[in-house]
Amino acid sequence: MDHLYDGLFAAAGLLNTLFIPGWLLVAYLEKLGKTTRELYGITCLGLSMVWLMMNGVFLNLLGAALHRPLLTAEIVIPYVGLSNLALLCAGRLLGIKPEFHYEIKRPWLYAYGLSLILLAAVGARLVTHCAENVLLLFLLPFIAVTVGVLAKKKSTTAVLSFTPSL
Amino acid sequence: MLHRALITNNLLGYDIHLEYYIAKLTMTQGCWDPFFPTAVNSCISLTILPPILAYCTKIELVWVLKLIYPFIFANVPVVIFKLYKKRLGVKGAALASFLFIVQFVFFSEMLGLARQQVAELMAMLSLYYAIDQYERLTNRILGVLFLFATALSHYGLTLILLLIVSLAVLLFREARRYKVFLLILLVFTLAWQSYTAGGTVVDSVVGLLKRSYTSAYYDFFGGGAREDSIYLALGGGAEQLSLPRKAYWLLQQTVQGVIVLGFVSRAVYFYRTKARVPVEEALAMTGLTTLLFCIVVPYFADGLNVTRIYHISLLFVGYYFAVGSAFLHKIAGAYLRVDKFLIARMILMFYFFFSSGYAYVVLGDRPSSIALNYQEYEDAYYYDNEIAAVAWASQRQIKEITGFTKYSRLLLGEFYGLEVNEEIRGPTCLFVRERGDRAEIEQKIEQKIEQRPVIYDSGAKIYGRKTEEADEETQSFDSG
After folding, report:
1. What's the gap in Å between the CA of B408 and the closest CA on chain A?
2. Cα-Cα-Cα-Cα dihedral of B261, B267, B271, B276, to 10°?
3. pLDDT per residue over A89-101, tens digit each?
């Protein structure tokens, strides 16, 4: 059960750090004009990292001003969640509605690809050598997309509906 | 990448151990010290990003570097593909990005360079948004944002990018509209690198330029002024290679030949038609020039390995591989009624077979991949008890310590950073690994070990200080 909790925490953490900030920032940018949609997912990833780095530097500066170490787990975990929430709320106040532009056209292909990754992970003796939560990290999107495949049509909705449950 | 990263629970590579130390330092102190004087410390992609990811996912820092960073880096070929798709078509762009993937550096050396993994994605995203529909305001904003992130992520890549882009802006009219980007990158990089990490990056760049300049007269034809791999790439020393390695060398030469052919064919085309060089090609041409610098300018490739410079230049130069392949097909098209890129794809398939090290295992040659035969590369493969030994020494606050070989010192770097002694002096403790160092130790410094008490033994050993005071300290360790 602990491992399941760790896996869920890791998956939610990855979403909170490497996807959601970029996803919201792209929505902000689209208020200024249309962006290129071709690299939507990777742009979200890149922007999320830029956001994290900027916030990290801000926390570091704030910590230096307050003479307190702020880059600790106790501060960073709620800070990241709250900053995402602030981005979302500020956006809604400005009339920005983030949408999910990434349409999964061939969900079976994703399921196949993810299952290959899963097999590779198992093949690399992850089960015996690594923490189980890492394995779960691979397993969760696999389950999500499989749900999407089973739903056949609304795969995107399935993935998205899985996300908040995390 | 995973086939290599997942063979052990511990870190693999050279720089990654110091990178881990720097990221860990932020976690243990709860803040980042921008003045800590090592170049790696100027990379936000190490000092800030991994701790945040580790906190928010509760994944250990080692696994953030081994698993999440390669996932980020794996997106780079996709960006390369999208960047070149408009000019080369789907198959040509796929070929250019596949050439980037099949390089040994992509799936091996890069795993040990976490900062460069992030920086390459940022740099390619920046170029993609700068080149693709530049007139859109949002694209320009994204381009500048990712440009800043590149400068913050890795100094080496930023400097090479500066060189490539500035040459493109100087030489090609179409690239001139990016002079603002260039200025932003230049000013921001200089400012950032001057004020962080004690200016060590600026120091080393100035040192490198000075060395290249002063040695241009004396070492231009000198043997020691360039890396061995440059001579090998130019054809020197290939006769000493075994048959499978010679085959790999030939494949490398073929790939380079196709790239040069692509470049020449396009250069002739632009010369004849007087057409303007598009930005993608301008970057590819200046990328090739960077490789030329490695050959011509003494010590130019010293800062980074030439393999890494080749890897970075392939972000741009891969374009000419696809162009060269298409040109070859155009010449031989009358005789070969096959797909335009089929031969190039076949070459890359064989290339991958060799670069991954699989061919050497199959053909019975000395293996080259730690993932396929880690017993042959025990030096670079760390076992849990070896990590435990170093962690023990670190927890006991043993200040002066060294490892007997380079690889044991690398491991010590994970816990001690730059404070690892280079020499085995009297008061210095000695860390001896269970496997990698043992044979060498027994042959070479048996007498030195005899003079030192063993203070930790789990297979991997730590030998105490040589002085009399150390004996008392050792006894207190044993009792404590």
Report:
1. 22
2. 140
3. 888 888 887 776 6
